[in-house]
Amino acid sequence: MELIIKCSALAVTASVIGLILKKTNAEFSFALSAAVIAVILLAVLKLSGITSELLREIRKLTADTDVQLMVMLKCVGIAGITKMSAELCRDASQNAAAAAVEFAGTVCAAAVSFPMITGMLKLIGEMV
Amino acid sequence: MDIDLIFKIAAIGILVAVLNILLQRSGREEQALMTSITALVVVLMVVVQKISELFTMIKTLFGL
User: Fold this and answer.
1) Of A11, A12, A33, residue with least CA distance to A84
2) Concatenated DSSP letters of B6-36
3) How confident is the prediction for chain A on average, in pLDDT?
4) DSSP secondary-structure letter at A65?
5) Where are the alpha helices (DSSP H) in A25-94?
6) Which residue of chain B has the CA closest to A67?
7) Is the per-residue pLDDT at A122 higher than 90?
8) What is the DSSP letter of B1?
9) Interface check B15 vs A, CB under 8 A
């Protein structure tokens, strides 16, 4: 797959350009980092055709565990957004903002997986 | 893959850096600051659109 080679080359090139821009205009270096993240992730996520097919197959095989699969997918999405945003904030030396984003991601993931946790606790209660 | 965007931002950044130095050396510091802020706003508008597109795709793909 040449996509990974393109992504790596773009990331390395943008990092070198970012180093040059950091000396004079640090804010442009930050904007460049954000643009690189957006471009690379968009290129990768456009392979979602393969991912959707895989998800459809998994749903067919595990028909009654559909809720758990959706919860897992949502947690993966939340984790991705949280990680990306926190690292962008750290690049701009805003550690407090990064910590706040990480905490928000944790709370959102917990909120999304709440139905699964209550289901599990009910199951344990029935067994006991 | 939108590689052109990266090089456009890099080119604007380098151009603004050069203009900044020129304006500051000729004693026009306010104009240097205005140039930097204007260019940054333009770049951020483009970047925010791309990030919005990314978040929309993540939302659709992961069912958020």
Assistant:
1) A33
2) HHHHHHHHHHHHHHHHHHHHTT-HHHHHHHH
3) 84
4) G
5) 26-45, 48-61, 66-91
6) B63
7) no
8) -
9) no
Q: Among A10, A35, A81, whose Cβ lies nearest the Cβ of B47?
A: A35
The Cβ of residue A33 has, within 10 Å, a number of other Cβ atoms equal to 21
What element of type H or E holds A3? helix A2-24
Residue-wise pLDDT for B13-60, tens only, equals 999 999 999 998 988 889 989 999 999 999 999 999 999 988 888 887
Instruction: Please report, for residues A60, A122, B37, B60, the alpha-carbon distance to residue A29 in angstroms, rounded to integers and kept in the order given.
Output: 46, 51, 14, 29
Q: Integer distance in angstroms from the first to the last C-alpha of chain A? A: 51
**Contact between residue B55 and residue A81 where contact means Cβ atoms under 8 Å apart:** yes
Question: Which 3 state secondary structure label does DSSP give B63?
Answer: coil
pLDDT tens digit sequence for A68-120: 677 888 888 889 889 999 999 998 889 999 999 999 999 999 998 888 888 88
The pTM for the full model equals 0.79
Contact B6 A36 (CB under 8 A): yes
Residues 82-121 of A with CB under 8 A from B: none
Residue A1 has pLDDT above 80, yes or no: no
